[in-house]
Give the backbone structure.
Amino acid sequence: MTAIVFEPATYYDAVVRCITETCPNYTEPPMAVTELYSNAGTPGIECGLCGQPMEILSATVMDPQPEVP
């Protein structure tokens, strides 16, 4: 699998999944995440049930980028 390279300070539409085997979300299909922010090029997202990091399966740069107030 090819590693995803994230640009700093950029929003992405992403698909993620929980990789914690003891979590109920582990057996669920991948989830869409809108407006995943890349921070300094290393985005992170946690499972809402177990609080552990989720695997980012794919990510597409949002075009246009959301306006930040």
